[in-house]
Structures are given as C-alpha cells and as structure tokens.
Amino acid sequence: MGGFQPVPHVLLMRQRELGLDSLDIVVLLNLTLYWWYRGQPPYLRTNLIAGRAGVSSRTIQRVIRKLQAKGYVRREKWTDAKGVTRPAIFFEGLIEKLEELTRADPILQERMNKALAKNASGQEMEVA
C-alpha cells in the first residue's frame, strides 16, 4: 500500500566501485522515486530530498553535481505534456554504467542468462 521501488542489485553491490557514498545512494533513490516512465524524467526537488535526508538543499545540490561530474545523471529543462517546463533529471549515464558492470560481473551475468533462458522457453521470468 505504501509503494515500493525496484533497485538494480548492481547499484548496491558496486556502490564503492561507482564512487558513491551512502548519501549519494539516498539522493539517487529519491530522484528515481518519481521516475515512473522512461520518457518522462522526474523533476528535481532538492528541498524535498534535503528534508527527507536531514541535510541542507545545498548538500543535495553538491551531491547532484557530483553525480553529474561522474556522468551518472544529466540535468536539463524538460517540458511536460501540459506545457510546464521544469528542471528534470535524466539517468542515461547511470543506466549505461550499471549495464556495463552487470555484464562484467560473472554472478550477475549468470543470473541474467538464466532469466533470459527461462523467458525464451516460455516460462515466466523470476524476479530476484
């Protein structure tokens, strides 16, 4: 009833390799919280994330700049279907990096191959 958010395992498993600390992960999770459709990016609300994390908006802005510098997120103005333009966050860089890390990890690669094989045989894919 309270909702849930799927998180790629590789994001947590490779957090250190990605150069992300716990606040970076909290910010990413808050940014993706409202990302319901791939073609509709979430809007940037630093004050809301700051209140949830118990830090200042300035701290959240620094984290977002760090994520941008690493190439994981991109900020740009986006106009929605109603014509309202707001700052939005795009995750292409993070998605690309997570896909790369998944392909390079033998355990995750084996899990992905099993899921794909089950799907190809007409069986329902498992979610782990």
Describe what this molecule looks like in 3D.
This protein has seven helices and two strands. The chain has 128 residues and is mostly helical. It has one domain (9-119): Arc Repressor Mutant, subunit A, CATH 1.10.10. The protein has a two-stranded antiparallel ribbon. The mean pLDDT is 88.
- The neighbouring-strand order within the major sheet is 1-2
Radius of gyration: 17 Å
Based on DSSP secondary structure assignment, what is the total number of beta strands?
2
Number of helical runs? 7
H and E order: HHHHHEEHH
Principal-axis shape: globular
Report the sheet-strand fraction: 5-15%
Helical content stands at 40-55%
CATH second-level architecture: Orthogonal Bundle
Brief overview, please?
With 128 residues, the chain is mainly alpha-helical. It has one domain (9-119): Winged helix-like DNA-binding domain superfamily/Winged helix DNA-binding domain (Arc Repressor Mutant, subunit A, Orthogonal Bundle), CATH 1.10.10. It has 7 helices and 2 strands.
